[in-house]
């Protein structure tokens, strides 16, 4: 894990968009991040239908998510709005 990148614990389920949002801190800058339900299901190997299980699945694969966020930051793969979308 890249120690310069800190993935926050501020998870928020957005049911309309079918995604989780969380923040990442990099070089003192807060970066909004989003992971789609589909991607989280793929990473966790589970079918997720309620918010509690979605949050648990995120925590179960947190290290993998942190690695992906780190790779996106290194690639400077920011969206036009400055966010990272997984």
List keywords for this structure.
86 residues, alpha+beta, Double Stranded RNA Binding Domain, 5-stranded mixed sheet, 3 helices, 5 strands, 28% strand, globular, DUF1488, Shew3726-like_sf
Task: List the SSEs and their pairings.
Layout lengths: L4 E3 L4 E3 L4 E8 L2 E8 H8 L6 H10 L1 H13 L9 E2 L1
Parallel strand pairs: 4-5
Antiparallel strand pairs: 1-3, 2-3, 3-4
Pfam family, one: DUF1488
InterPro entries: DUF1488, Shew3726-like_sf
Molecular structure report:
The chain is built from three helices and five strands. By secondary structure, it is α+β, with helices and mostly antiparallel strands. The longest helix has 13 residues, at 62-74. 17% of the residues are buried.
Report low-confidence residues grouped into runs of 5 or more: none
Q: From the alpha-carbon coordinates, what is the Rg to the nearest angstrom?
A: 12 Å
Please, what is the CATH homologous superfamily?
A: Shew3726-like
Oligomer: single chain
Count of DSSP strands: 5
Q: Which class of secondary structure composition applies to the elements?
A: alpha+beta
β-sheet strand percentage: 25-35%
Pfam families: DUF1488
